[in-house]
Amino acid sequence: MLTSIRPDRDAVALAVSGLLGGLLLWWLGLHTQGGRSPLAPWVTLVPLTAMAGAELLRRAAPRTALAIGTLALVADQFTWGSLATVLMFTDVLYAAVLYGPPAAARRLPVATLLITVASTIGFLAWFREPEALLIGLVVGLVSFVPALTGVSVRSHRAAADSARLAAAQTARLAEMDRTQAVIAERARMARELHDMVANHLSAVAIHSTAALSIDDPETSRSALKVIRENSVEGLAEMRRLIGLLRAGGEDEPPAAAPTLAAVDTLIRQTNVNGASAGLVCTLEDDRGPEPRALPTPVELAAYRIAQESLTNALKHAAPGPVVVRLGRAGELLTVEVTSVYGERPGPTAPGSGAGIVGMRERVALLGGTFEARAEQGGRDAKVWRVRAELPLNEREMRE
Fold first, then answer.
1. Exposed e or buried b for every residue in 203-240, given b needs 16+ CB within 10 A?
2. Each residue of 65-107: pLDDT tens digit?
3. Nearest to 73 by CA among 99, 44, 94
4. Coil, strand or helix: which one is 379?
């Protein structure tokens, strides 16, 4: 509690300077009342000392300082008077407006204005001389002007604080945007890496397991051939991803993004990789004899959805048909992949669960709809169906 009212260096400097200045004026015999007071000259030092004490509290306790300063100023009028006391009062009043509570900052300028007007009118009525206006002017300089100055400085400081706060908030928002951009880019890279490599690594895992578990030279040779093909293609996909990350570099130009025209290649790869598991993959393209060019983001998303769905079928689907259907109705592209749902004999590849999440995120970014679930197929069989609807209209994609 005591540390909260400890005076700062500026307050001490002002108090000491005002007190020494007042002592010098008193020693030189310079008084504001001209010796009209019946009291002894040394009494002038009492309000001077009290005002110096008020200066010490100008910032730590501005309202207390103003109360002490007002009493000291009134007492000074009954002594020989000191200019230092008056000057220190103006600073105490200024500090009360600047450092005091908001209510004081609003009321003190109004109160000092009313005191100035009332003093001017009172002295005019008393002296009935135009010189009485000078007394009102002095009262205004001592009270209203310091209060008005305090309000002005306080307003400028508040505006500066608001500007600094706004700048800090802007910086925080910019940092949040940067962080979100980094997270989004990492998510995009993770999707690309998963979609590019998962298909080939799944085939490698399945066929390497088959080669190790089946003691047949021909089967092992066939499995090693598939493993080599997928390893080479996976390496090429990794190089393509590196090319995307280094797009604009001097060493190599960025590789083109895959499109739906390459789905036939995916079908062939899946038939080769899934032959040992009894998978037969076919493509049903209902987009027409000459499919119209699609927006690049839609082409890439549709290709990745088909690729990831075939990868999941290679990992988990039971023996049977795997059908990829491409369709278009107006401004909507449909990608649907179905496979037999059930227990699968033979080796399988582990899944991370990120594939469906990645497909759902891709579709959501384009404003489409996505579903992946098991459904009742023909007879007693169940099928796993992945279906995505991607809007082709740029306005719908932005919305």
1. bbbbbbebbeeeeeeeebebbeebbebbeebbeebeeb
2. 999 999 999 999 899 989 999 999 999 999 999 998 988 888 9
3. 44
4. coil
Q: CATH for 258-399, among 3.40.50.300, 3.30.70.2740, 3.20.20.70, 3.30.565.10?
A: 3.30.565.10
Q: What's the CA gap between 200 and 198, in Å, rounded?
A: 6
Q: What is the pLDDT of residues 162-213, one digit of tens each?
A: 999 989 888 888 888 877 776 776 676 666 666 666 666 666 766 676 666 6
> pTM to 2 decimals?
0.51
Sequence spans of domains, the chain: 3-170, 258-399
Q: Where are the alpha helices (DSSP H) in 81-143?
A: 83-99, 102-127, 132-139
DSSP letter at 115?
H
Question: What are the C-alpha distances in Å from 174 to residues 161, 177, 186, 352, 382?
Answer: 20, 5, 18, 34, 50
Rounded Cα gap, residues 78 and 271, in angstroms? 111
Rounded to whole angstroms, the Cα distance separating 195 from 189 reads 10
Closest CA to 89 of 58, 118, 116, 110: 58
Question: Starting at the edge strand that comes first in sequence, how are the strands of the sheet with 382-391 ordered?
Answer: 279-286, 320-328, 332-341, 382-391, 369-376
The predicted pLDDT at position 185 comes to 63
